Amino acid sequence: MKLYDFPGPPSPRRVRILLAEKGLDVDKISVDIRSGEQFSDEFKKINPNCTVPVLELDDGTTISSIDAINRYIEEIYPEPPLFGTSPEERAKINDWCHYTNVNGFMAVAEALRNSAPRLAGRAITGPRDVEQIPALAERGRQRVLYFFEDLDKQLEGRDFVAGNSYSAADIGAMVVIDFATTMAKIEMPEGLPNLKRWHAAVAARPSASA
Ligand SMILES: N[C@@H](CCC(=O)N[C@@H](CS)C(=O)NCC(=O)O)C(=O)O
Questions:
Q1: Which of 76, 107, 123 is the last residue of a domain?
Q2: Which residue's CA lies nearest to atom 16 of ligand 1?
Q3: How far apart are CA 142 and CA 132, in angstroms?
C-alpha cells in the first residue's frame, strides 16, 4: 500500500503517527496542497474530493477518510492495538475520535479557513470554491476553546483520552491541538492543567514527530 501525503497539515499527520506507533513504514507520495497539486486531473482520479491523506491498497482501492484509513491499518496490523481491545473500549475510542473530528478538527478548520487570506475562496476543502464567512471564523475560535475545556474535563484523573492506553483518540486530539495552536494560532488558555499534562506526555512520544 502507499500513502498520498503532505507534511504540515493535520489530517495526513494523524495517519503518519498511527503508522509510526505500529512501527510501519509505507511508500509515501507527496501531494503539494500548498501549490494546488490536489486539484490536478491525475490526483482527482485518486481522490475526487481533492484532499490528503489517501491510502491506496495494492489492488488499487483508495481510502480517503482518516478514521477509515486508520481502522483499516489497525485491522491489517493489530499490534499494538490503537482502537482498544474490548467492544466497550473500542466504542469509547471511536466516540472520542468522532467528538474530536466534529468539535475539534472542524472547529479549527472553521476558524482558520474562514479567516486566512491564503484560503480566500477556499473556506471548505474540495473541488468547489466556497467563500469565507468571517463570523464563522469567530464561531470556530469559540468552539475550539470549548473543545479545550471539554478535553481538560475528560482528562481529569486519566492518562489517555479514552480507554486504558494510548490510542487513536489521543492521536486525533493531539493533532487537533497542534493544528489549533500552530496553524490557527489559537493558544491553550490559562489553567486546563489536565489538558497540558496530557499534551506534554503525548507530544513527547517519538511518533509525534512523524
Ligand atoms: N477526509 C479527511 C479530511 C482530509 C483533509 O481535510 N485534508 C486537508 C489537509 S488537513 C486537505 O487535503 N486540504 C486540501 C485543501 O486545503 O485544498 C477526513 O477524514 O476528515
A1: 76
A2: 125
A3: 17
In whole angstroms, give the CA distance from residue 194 to residue 192. Answer: 6
Model confidence over 179-210: pLDDT tens digits? 999 999 999 999 999 999 999 999 999 999 99
Distance 109 CA to ligand 1 centre (A): 10
Closest residue to atom 12 of ligand 1, CA basis: 51
Question: How far, in Å, is the centroid of ligand 1 from the Cα of 50?
Answer: 8
CATH of the domain at 33: 3.40.30.10
**pTM to 2 decimal places:** 0.97
